[in-house]
Design a protein that fits this description.
Shape: elongated
Number of strands: 0
Helix content: over 70%
Largest sheet: none
Structural class: mainly alpha
Number of helices: 5
Strand content: under 5%
Order of helices and strands: HHHHH
Radius of gyration: 20 Å
Distance between the termini: 29 Å
Length: about 160
């Protein structure tokens, strides 16, 4: 790929990270739903438990959670990289720190999974970390929209001038 074709892609790179992150926010909410179903299955008894077990929620939660972890890490790296490509610097601010916090928390949450079968308190920590991740992620979505609005207004000013 030539430098000219990379330069042609530069304006669109600014939108790849936010679109990806909105998709991942939806995926995170779906993973939460699956986790709630895992808990319902674990606490159910008799026929309701048999019905819930058919949903294979634990397997799906684990698989989607693993994919979410990988994509969150790659998305964070991508966001930082695109920012650097477009502006020649990494913008140090609350959006970056919250994003890095999310990556650290989701990795820690995933690392707890092997210990959740033997220690029920670990499950509570896993759930708590993920709720904090979702809260930070929601805040990231809002601040990300503000950043995109700033980028779009700068693009509009640059194209008009």
């Amino acid at each position: 790929m030539s430098l000219e074709s990379l330069a042609a892609l530069k304006p669109y790179l600014s939108f790849f990270h936010p679109v990806t992150m909105w998709i991942l926010l939806a995926l995170a909410l779906y993973t939460l739903y699956l986790g709630v179903q895992v808990r319902r299955t674990r606490l159910a008894e008799g026929e309701p438990k048999k019905e819930l077990t058919k949903g294979r929620f634990a397997i799906r939660h684990h698989q989607i959670g693993s994919i979410l972890l990988a994509l969150m890490v790659m998305g964070a790296i991508g966001g930082i990289t695109v920012t650097y490509i477009n502006s020649g610097k990494i913008v140090i601010g609350p959006h970056l720190f919250a994003g890095l916090g999310i990556v650290g928390l989701i990795a820690t949450s995933a690392a707890l999974v092997p210990f959740m079968q033997k220690h029920t308190w670990v499950r509570s920590v896993h759930v708590s970390l993920n709720l904090v991740v979702l809260g930070l992620f929601g805040w990231q979505a809002i601040t990300g929209v503000q950043i995109v609005q700033k980028i779009v207004s700068q693009m509009t000013v640059n194209s008009a001038g």
